[in-house]
């Protein structure tokens, strides 16, 4: 099976991955045993048997070693390791959303490009051109593009064709107003998930 088949919307389960590998090997050689699989992985067969039956967890420090012996990809190994270290997949997903929220909030509070772009939209010589706006605000294209993407995600800015519109509802977008509104939208997003 490919990596994509193992990493799906369901919780990544290294124990299930071990069971699948044992079944695959038994499909090739029906006499293949848990003892032989344990030797391959470098673990006592009784320990492996208990892991496979769900009686005990994967021993600490063994997951990465066993996964390497199975020649799993680095991303797949890290996903299994993260899932093993968490209470459950839902907890892992909540932690990930929280980390994303924190990163968004940090960027909003430390990057003035957000509110400066909303202010620039009100300029009489405004042009819906990222390069022009970046030059006008003395920002790098990447920095402004990141701020633009965040404003779009949070519903503070809307782009229709060549028209850019401030839909924040703020009369005069300043640092405090944009940060407060954006953080409120982030909190609402976090509460909804």
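^ structure tokens above, recovered residues below v
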């Amino acid at each position: 099976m490919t990596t994509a088949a193992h990493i799906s919307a369901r919780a990544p389960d290294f124990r299930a991955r071990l069971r699948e590998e044992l079944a695959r090997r038994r499909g090739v050689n029906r006499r293949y045993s848990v003892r032989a699989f344990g030797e391959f992985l470098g673990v006592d067969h009784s320990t492996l048997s208990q892991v496979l039956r769900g009686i005990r967890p994967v021993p600490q420090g063994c997951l990465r070693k066993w996964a390497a012996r199975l020649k799993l990809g680095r991303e797949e190994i890290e996903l299994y390791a993260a899932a093993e270290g968490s209470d459950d997949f839902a907890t892992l997903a909540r932690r990930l959303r929280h980390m994303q929220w924190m990163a968004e909030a940090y960027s909003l509070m430390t990057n003035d490009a957000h509110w400066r772009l909303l202010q620039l939209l009100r300029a009489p010589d405004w042009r819906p051109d990222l390069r022009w706006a970046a030059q006008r605000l003395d920002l790098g294209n990447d920095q402004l593009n990141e701020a633009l993407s965040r404003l779009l995600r949070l519903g503070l800015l809307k782009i229709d064709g060549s028209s850019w519109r401030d839909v924040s509802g703020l009369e005069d977008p300043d640092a405090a107003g944009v940060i407060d509104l954006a953080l409120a939208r982030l909190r609402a997003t976090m509460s909804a998930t």
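The longest strand covers residues 157-160.
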